[in-house]
Amino acid sequence: MSALPEPFAQRDAPDEAELNGRSYAEYATDVLRDRLIVLDIRPGTPLNDEQIGRELGIGRTPVREALKRLEAEHLVAMFPRRGTFASPVDFTDLAPITEIRAQLEPLAASRAARVASATTREQLAALADTISHIDLATSTPVTLMRYDLEVHRSIYAASGSRHLQEDLLKYDNLATRIWCLVIDRLPDVASHVDEHVALLQAIAAGDADAAAAIAREHVLGFESMVRSVI
Questions:
Q1: Bridge partners for 79 per DSSP
Q2: Domain match, 138 and 44 both
């Protein structure tokens, strides 16, 4: 997830493996979203569709479509006659985002525990095992953040609800931007990531009540941790 370089290098169009069934607009949306979420593209950075297109190896039209999608997700801000910019990170958003996530995250976790296929349960259990065997205390903030994103995205997908998944992805992305802005000052990020192990195990075991309870405490704990340094 490298930052957009300056000057922007021309590259070939993404191949089928990179696209993985996505359109150019979907590909651009995913690439830019991840860069915006982890602040590789810093808040307030101007975004030029032609330059981005050259770096991604695609035309301006799919880039423009991607930027419009990201505007709807509050990751990009567009201003007439001024241009397009990476949205600012507003700490006052933390409370309303947490309120929504505290309702939806337990729902996604409980649904995943009830409806996930056997294959998905195995994948979630394997992810829990991977995290449990990592020395989180010595892991870099970027590594911890990547595992956090992977866990949440996996649970949303396992919930079996496209609408729930879309909503939660949006709010988790916004929460992650806040997290990335203060991650170097947070007291115990490793423990926060380690909480995912019990959550994934509860879902894999089909324990909907336990999964919901752990998910809710995880979200509230995240807010408390961030507030301790802002």
A1: 83
A2: no
Neighbours of 99 (CB within 10 A): 13
pLDDT tens per residue, range 52-83: 999 999 999 999 999 999 999 999 999 988 99
Sign of CA pseudo-dihedral 84, 165, 175, 123: negative
Residue 158: domain span: 91-227
Per the DSSP assignment, residues forming a β-bridge with 83 are 79
- Between CA 196 and CA 200, with CA 199 as vertex, the angle to 5 degrees is 85
Number of domains in the chain: 2
Q: Which of 70, 86, 102 is the last residue of a domain?
A: 86
Residue 110 lies in a domain: yes
Both 65 and 153 in a single domain?
Answer: no
Q: Identify whether the C-beta of residue 46 lies closer than 8 Å to the C-beta of residue 79.
A: no
What are the tens digits of pLDDT across the range 150-184? 999 999 999 999 999 999 999 999 999 999 899 88
Q: How far apart are CA 198 and CA 191, in angstroms?
A: 12
- 198: exposed, middle or buried (Cβ count in 10 Å: 0-12, 13-18, 19+): middle
Q: Where are the alpha helices (DSSP H) in the chain?
A: 16-19, 24-37, 49-56, 60-72, 94-115, 118-132, 141-158, 162-182, 189-204, 208-227
What's the CA gap between 156 and 227, in Å, rounded?
Answer: 25
